[in-house]
Amino acid sequence: MRPAARTVKKETKKIKLKKALTVANIQNQKIEYVALTGSWFEALGKPQNRGLWFVYGDSGSGKSSYLMQMAKEFAGTMKVLYNLLEEETDDSDYIKRTELFSMHEVADKFHTVSYTLDELDAYLEKPNRPGAVFIDSLVYATKDWERWYAFKKKWAHKVILVVSAHAKGKNPKTDFEDRVRFDAKMKIFVSGYLAVCQGRTIGANGGTFIVYQEGYEKLRGAS
Length: 223
Fold this sequence. Notes:
Blueprint: H1 23-27, H2 38-44, E1 51-57, H3 63-75, E2 80-84, H4 92-100, E3 110-113, H5 117-124, E4 132-136, H6 138-141, H7 145-155, E5 160-168, E6 171-172, H8 175-183, E7 186-191, E8 194-197, E9 208-210, H9 213-219
Parallel strand pairs: 1-5, 1-7, 2-3, 2-4, 4-5
Antiparallel strand pairs: 5-6, 7-8, 8-9
Protein backbone atom coordinates (compact mmCIF):
# COMPACT_ATOMS: atom_id res chain seq x y z
CA MET A 1 0.00 0.00 0.00
CA ARG A 2 1.44 3.38 -1.03
CA PRO A 3 2.05 5.99 1.66
CA ALA A 4 -0.19 9.02 1.45
CA ALA A 5 1.26 11.82 -0.64
CA ARG A 6 2.59 14.68 1.44
CA THR A 7 0.89 17.97 0.83
CA VAL A 8 3.36 20.80 0.23
CA LYS A 9 2.03 24.13 1.35
CA LYS A 10 3.24 26.97 -0.84
CA GLU A 11 4.18 30.13 0.92
CA THR A 12 2.69 33.12 -0.80
CA LYS A 13 4.65 36.34 -0.60
CA LYS A 14 2.51 39.21 0.56
CA ILE A 15 2.62 42.17 -1.78
CA LYS A 16 2.37 45.56 -0.14
CA LEU A 17 0.31 47.79 -2.39
CA LYS A 18 0.66 51.54 -2.56
CA LYS A 19 -2.34 53.61 -1.63
CA ALA A 20 -4.63 54.53 -4.52
CA LEU A 21 -4.68 58.31 -4.97
CA THR A 22 -7.82 60.39 -5.17
CA VAL A 23 -8.23 63.28 -7.59
CA ALA A 24 -7.56 65.64 -4.66
CA ASN A 25 -4.37 63.74 -3.83
CA ILE A 26 -3.18 64.16 -7.40
CA GLN A 27 -4.08 67.82 -7.76
CA ASN A 28 -2.78 68.92 -4.35
CA GLN A 29 0.74 67.65 -4.92
CA LYS A 30 3.47 70.27 -4.76
CA ILE A 31 5.12 70.53 -8.18
CA GLU A 32 8.36 72.45 -8.70
CA TYR A 33 9.32 73.93 -12.04
CA VAL A 34 12.47 75.19 -13.72
CA ALA A 35 12.56 78.99 -13.66
CA LEU A 36 13.58 79.59 -17.27
CA THR A 37 14.14 83.10 -18.60
CA GLY A 38 14.09 84.97 -21.91
CA SER A 39 14.34 82.86 -25.06
CA TRP A 40 14.41 79.67 -22.98
CA PHE A 41 11.06 80.47 -21.41
CA GLU A 42 9.64 81.39 -24.83
CA ALA A 43 10.74 78.02 -26.21
CA LEU A 44 10.15 75.64 -23.29
CA GLY A 45 7.72 77.37 -20.94
CA LYS A 46 7.72 75.98 -17.39
CA PRO A 47 9.01 72.39 -17.42
CA GLN A 48 9.06 70.34 -14.23
CA ASN A 49 12.40 70.25 -12.42
CA ARG A 50 12.93 66.53 -13.00
CA GLY A 51 12.66 63.93 -15.75
CA LEU A 52 14.55 62.76 -18.82
CA TRP A 53 15.40 65.24 -21.56
CA PHE A 54 16.62 63.86 -24.90
CA VAL A 55 18.57 66.22 -27.17
CA TYR A 56 19.67 64.86 -30.54
CA GLY A 57 21.13 66.15 -33.78
CA ASP A 58 23.69 65.46 -36.47
CA SER A 59 27.32 66.56 -36.35
CA GLY A 60 27.61 70.30 -37.00
CA SER A 61 23.96 70.96 -36.17
CA GLY A 62 24.67 73.20 -33.18
CA LYS A 63 23.77 70.53 -30.64
CA SER A 64 26.89 70.96 -28.50
CA SER A 65 26.41 74.72 -28.34
CA TYR A 66 22.75 74.23 -27.46
CA LEU A 67 23.64 71.89 -24.60
CA MET A 68 26.19 74.34 -23.20
CA GLN A 69 23.71 77.22 -23.34
CA MET A 70 21.06 75.06 -21.67
CA ALA A 71 23.53 74.08 -18.94
CA LYS A 72 24.24 77.76 -18.30
CA GLU A 73 20.52 78.58 -18.10
CA PHE A 74 19.96 75.79 -15.59
CA ALA A 75 23.01 76.88 -13.58
CA GLY A 76 21.26 80.18 -12.92
CA THR A 77 19.03 78.40 -10.40
CA MET A 78 20.59 74.98 -9.64
CA LYS A 79 23.81 72.98 -9.53
CA VAL A 80 24.70 71.44 -12.89
CA LEU A 81 27.00 68.48 -13.54
CA TYR A 82 28.21 68.08 -17.13
CA ASN A 83 29.38 64.51 -17.76
CA LEU A 84 31.62 64.91 -20.81
CA LEU A 85 32.24 61.59 -22.55
CA GLU A 86 32.41 62.20 -26.29
CA GLU A 87 35.22 64.74 -25.84
CA GLU A 88 38.03 65.11 -23.32
CA THR A 89 37.97 67.81 -20.67
CA ASP A 90 41.16 69.27 -22.18
CA ASP A 91 39.72 69.24 -25.72
CA SER A 92 40.15 72.69 -27.28
CA ASP A 93 36.59 72.67 -28.69
CA TYR A 94 35.07 72.10 -25.26
CA ILE A 95 37.28 74.76 -23.69
CA LYS A 96 36.26 77.24 -26.42
CA ARG A 97 32.55 76.55 -25.80
CA THR A 98 32.95 77.34 -22.11
CA GLU A 99 34.61 80.61 -23.14
CA LEU A 100 32.12 81.45 -25.90
CA PHE A 101 29.16 81.14 -23.55
CA SER A 102 30.92 82.76 -20.57
CA MET A 103 30.52 79.78 -18.28
CA HIS A 104 32.69 81.58 -15.72
CA GLU A 105 29.54 83.56 -14.89
CA VAL A 106 28.04 80.41 -13.33
CA ALA A 107 31.33 78.85 -12.18
CA ASP A 108 30.02 78.12 -8.68
CA LYS A 109 27.11 76.06 -10.07
CA PHE A 110 28.68 74.35 -13.10
CA HIS A 111 31.15 71.44 -12.97
CA THR A 112 32.50 69.03 -15.58
CA VAL A 113 33.41 65.37 -15.05
CA SER A 114 34.02 62.31 -17.20
CA TYR A 115 32.30 59.50 -15.27
CA THR A 116 31.20 56.03 -16.24
CA LEU A 117 27.54 55.31 -15.55
CA ASP A 118 28.49 53.49 -12.34
CA GLU A 119 30.65 56.40 -11.18
CA LEU A 120 27.87 58.85 -11.99
CA ASP A 121 25.42 56.73 -10.00
CA ALA A 122 27.78 56.78 -7.00
CA TYR A 123 28.24 60.55 -7.32
CA LEU A 124 24.51 61.18 -7.28
CA GLU A 125 24.22 59.22 -4.04
CA LYS A 126 26.19 61.97 -2.29
CA PRO A 127 24.47 64.80 -0.37
CA ASN A 128 23.77 68.04 -2.24
CA ARG A 129 23.47 66.32 -5.60
CA PRO A 130 23.08 68.56 -8.67
CA GLY A 131 19.64 69.51 -9.92
CA ALA A 132 20.59 68.76 -13.53
CA VAL A 133 22.94 66.18 -15.02
CA PHE A 134 24.09 66.29 -18.65
CA ILE A 135 25.41 63.12 -20.32
CA ASP A 136 27.26 63.99 -23.52
CA SER A 137 26.75 61.69 -25.15
CA LEU A 138 24.54 58.75 -24.24
CA VAL A 139 26.16 55.93 -26.23
CA TYR A 140 29.52 56.70 -24.63
CA ALA A 141 27.94 55.95 -21.25
CA THR A 142 26.09 52.78 -22.27
CA LYS A 143 24.37 51.04 -25.17
CA ASP A 144 22.54 48.59 -22.94
CA TRP A 145 18.82 49.32 -22.51
CA GLU A 146 18.32 47.45 -19.24
CA ARG A 147 21.31 49.13 -17.62
CA TRP A 148 20.20 52.55 -18.84
CA TYR A 149 16.58 52.06 -17.80
CA ALA A 150 17.60 51.08 -14.26
CA PHE A 151 19.71 54.24 -13.98
CA LYS A 152 16.98 56.43 -15.44
CA LYS A 153 14.30 54.93 -13.21
CA LYS A 154 16.43 55.58 -10.14
CA TRP A 155 17.29 59.20 -10.86
CA ALA A 156 14.85 60.80 -13.33
CA HIS A 157 12.31 61.51 -10.58
CA LYS A 158 14.97 63.31 -8.51
CA VAL A 159 16.95 65.35 -11.05
CA ILE A 160 16.79 66.54 -14.64
CA LEU A 161 18.72 64.08 -16.81
CA VAL A 162 19.75 65.64 -20.11
CA VAL A 163 21.22 63.14 -22.57
CA SER A 164 22.58 63.97 -25.99
CA ALA A 165 22.42 61.60 -28.93
CA HIS A 166 23.36 61.42 -32.59
CA ALA A 167 20.88 61.69 -35.42
CA LYS A 168 20.44 60.14 -38.83
CA GLY A 169 18.19 62.47 -40.72
CA LYS A 170 15.39 63.49 -38.37
CA ASN A 171 15.61 60.38 -36.20
CA PRO A 172 18.08 59.09 -33.60
CA LYS A 173 20.95 57.19 -35.18
CA THR A 174 20.50 53.85 -33.40
CA ASP A 175 17.56 51.78 -32.18
CA PHE A 176 18.84 52.16 -28.62
CA GLU A 177 18.87 55.95 -28.87
CA ASP A 178 15.41 55.90 -30.44
CA ARG A 179 14.11 53.81 -27.55
CA VAL A 180 15.53 56.31 -25.07
CA ARG A 181 13.88 59.16 -27.00
CA PHE A 182 10.51 57.45 -26.80
CA ASP A 183 10.91 57.18 -23.02
CA ALA A 184 11.92 60.84 -22.56
CA LYS A 185 9.72 63.57 -21.16
CA MET A 186 11.32 66.29 -23.28
CA LYS A 187 12.53 65.59 -26.85
CA ILE A 188 14.55 68.27 -28.61
CA PHE A 189 15.85 68.00 -32.19
CA VAL A 190 18.70 70.30 -33.27
CA SER A 191 19.34 70.95 -36.96
CA GLY A 192 20.85 73.92 -38.78
CA TYR A 193 21.37 75.82 -35.52
CA LEU A 194 17.67 75.56 -34.67
CA ALA A 195 16.45 73.51 -31.70
CA VAL A 196 12.83 72.35 -31.83
CA CYS A 197 11.11 70.90 -28.79
CA GLN A 198 8.88 67.90 -29.44
CA GLY A 199 8.28 67.20 -25.77
CA ARG A 200 5.43 67.60 -23.32
CA THR A 201 6.19 71.21 -22.35
CA ILE A 202 6.36 73.78 -25.13
CA GLY A 203 6.60 77.55 -24.77
CA ALA A 204 4.71 80.37 -26.45
CA ASN A 205 6.86 80.42 -29.61
CA GLY A 206 6.11 76.78 -30.42
CA GLY A 207 9.23 75.30 -28.85
CA THR A 208 11.94 76.82 -31.06
CA PHE A 209 15.31 78.14 -29.94
CA ILE A 210 17.93 79.62 -32.29
CA VAL A 211 21.30 78.27 -31.19
CA TYR A 212 23.50 80.56 -33.30
CA GLN A 213 21.78 83.49 -35.02
CA GLU A 214 24.40 84.20 -37.71
CA GLY A 215 24.75 80.54 -38.68
CA TYR A 216 20.97 80.08 -38.66
CA GLU A 217 20.43 83.04 -41.01
CA LYS A 218 23.32 82.08 -43.31
CA LEU A 219 21.95 78.58 -43.82
CA ARG A 220 18.57 80.05 -44.75
CA GLY A 221 19.94 82.64 -47.18
CA ALA A 222 19.33 85.71 -45.06
CA SER A 223 21.46 88.71 -46.00
